[in-house]
Amino acid sequence: MAYSDKVLDHYNSPRNVGSLDKKDPHVGTGLVGAPECGDVMKLQIRVNPDTGVIEDAKFKTFGCGSAIASSSLATEMLKGRTVDEAGQIKNTQIVNELSLPPVKIHCSVLAEDAIKAAIEDYRAKQGAPAGGALQQSV
Amino acid sequence: MSFPLIEHTCWRCGQSSEQESEAASLFCKFCNSLQRPVVDYFEFFGFDKSLTIDSAELQRRYYLLSRQLHPDRYTRATETERNFSLEATSILNDGYRVLRDPVQRAEYILKESGFDIGEQRSKDVPPELLEEVFDLNVALDVLRSGDAGALTELEASRERFVEMQNEIDADLELKFRQYDAAPEPERHELLTSIRSVLNRRRYIRNLLQEVNKEFATREA
């Protein structure tokens, strides 16, 4: 089956490949996988603590071309959005943008899962110190 | 495990009989005509739904049924029987392929029990497994971009993956026997654990394929 030009573009020159410091309190990491095809996808965001805007996003995906393209596109979509806005990103946007065929839709689902997991991780990191501070003030 | 008695009425002679399983109904007891085949592979072959199967017995039944159901035997039969024979032969072949392979057999039972392998979301995959697979992939990536010196390490990881796969298969065999021996209420939990072992197996198999591909490229 032929890949769309956009998939090929992201596959051949993936954007934002790499990693951010996992221990940084402003970095959220999402690691997800699709066992049926053996894909693993790691997606990270770094959030500006003052504005709540995602300043940087990185990914590393081991999987098929569509999975790589989906996560590459996801990092592009994330940059410049607030965390709340990022949480609204739907896999269908990725499907449309990359013209993914039905058999590759699960790749976009995986990318959406990775975004959600990264946000969740970031929020968990933010929540922990805040809760601690509350307890101290009591 | 025994099936509840099923009343079966022959499409041709109209006589009814009660039988233990649908499998027994491939042929009518009274007029011996071919009946609509059941789609469940275990019932079709007359096995209990178990993860361990006597492969010699499976093969024996496969050959026997192949002879009995072969479309060539029904060229002069009614259209209904001709169609049933085609349907049955296709179930026979698909079923044999699935049942004789332990992994496919387990995946079939998982699917029949409501675990859809193809529709798993990442939340079903334990994070430790993802970490492990991710790290193994990173290591493999480093070796791949390395020079000839990386070959020894590559060979070492190939051996490691083969070993992991063997361990997984041994673990699966044990879990299959546990499942077959377990009472119904405990089976769901066992299937959940079998599924996660199968997931890990798939990841390791992929890694092994990647390593082998790398060797093939280097040798070419």
Spans of chain A of 5+ residues with little confidence (pLDDT < 50)? 130-138
Shape of chain A: globular
Element order of chain A: H for helix, E for strand: HEEEHHHH
Strand order of the largest sheet of chain A: 1-2-3
C-alpha termini separation of chain B:
54 Å
Task: Work out the helix count of chain B.
Answer: 7
DSSP, total strands of chain A: 3
What coarse outline of chain B follows from CA principal-axis ratios?
A: elongated
- Integer average pLDDT of chain B: 86
CATH superfamily of the largest domain in chain B: DnaJ domain
Radius of gyration of chain A: 16 Å
For the record, the count of structural domains of chain B works out to 2
Structural class designation of chain A? alpha+beta
**Major β-sheet profile of chain A:** 3 strands, antiparallel
Instruction: Classify the helix fraction of chain A into a percent range.
Output: 40-55%
Task: Give the low-confidence spans of chain B.
Answer: none
Q: What is the CATH top level name of the largest domain in chain B? A: Mainly Alpha
Helix content range of the residues of chain B, please?
A: 55-70%
Q: What pair of chains forms the biggest interface?
A: A-B, 16 and 24 residues
